[in-house]
Specification:
Blueprint (H helix, E strand, L loop, with lengths): L1 E2 L5 H13 L7 E2 L5 E2 L5 E2 L3 E2 L10 E4 L5 H7 L1 H12 L3 E5 L3 H6 L7 E2 L6 H6 L3 E2 L4 E4 L2 E4 L5 H13 L1 H10 L8
Parallel strand pairs: 1-2, 2-5, 6-7, 7-11, 8-9
Antiparallel strand pairs: 3-4, 10-11
Helix pairs in contact: 1-6, 6-7
């Protein structure tokens, strides 16, 4: 998972937490090797710098949203190159909130059903994406989601794809994500 200053804390922490509960090895790759401050003042320590990781070592690349975090991701040539490489290698490429715009910039949304934070659909269309309003959209090896409130279903879909449906369902039950709020 890429991490840039101004990331959305709910999304980043939910993704890492759910995947680790699913026994998926997660590496948080910071655009800098130091402490990274989120959009709301929470600080995260990346496991590695983006310069220390290679797509060949992973099954997926994931971009949390948040502003200005997603803007830093889309300006980073290494992030864009790694997304393209992962997509071309048929690995999972996933983004939530505003970060599907990063996938669009990387050219991996052409002809793909996808979603993004409300009001940003034009970012998807620029890259040839087909915007949907679903909470989570899966099209081939691309997974997108809409924002902080969709972080849990997004992370559970990642867990399903990386660890299996049974594991994801078990995590869903253990976190009470399977209940309906009234």
């Amino acid at each position: 998972m890429f991490l840039a200053k101004g990331f959305e804390e709910i999304e980043a922490s939910t993704i890492v937490d759910i995947l680790r509960r699913s026994d998926v090895e997660v590496t948080v790759a910071g655009l800098t090797p130091d402490l990274v401050e989120g959009a709301h003042g929470m600080n995260f320590v990346p496991d590695k710098s983006i310069e220390e990781v290679a797509v060949k070592d992973f099954d997926a690349v994931v971009c949390p949203g948040g502003a200005p975090g997603y803007k830093y991701l889309r300006k980073n040539r290494r992030v864009i190159a790694m997304i393209k490489e992962a997509f071309d290698s048929n690995k999972l490429v996933a983004a939530v909130c505003a970060s599907p715009a990063v996938l669009s910039d990387a050219g991996v949304l052409k002809g793909k059903a996808c979603t993004i934070y409300p009001g940003m659909e034009g970012e998807l269309e620029k890259g040839g994406g087909k915007p949907r309003k679903d909470m989570v959209v899966v099209d081939g090896n691309v997974i997108t989601s809409r924002g902080p409130a969709t972080a849990l279903p997004f992370a559970l879909k990642l867990a399903e794809k990386l660890a299996g449906k049974e594991v994801a369902e078990n995590i869903k039950k253990k976190t009470l994500a399977n209940i309906t709020l009234k």
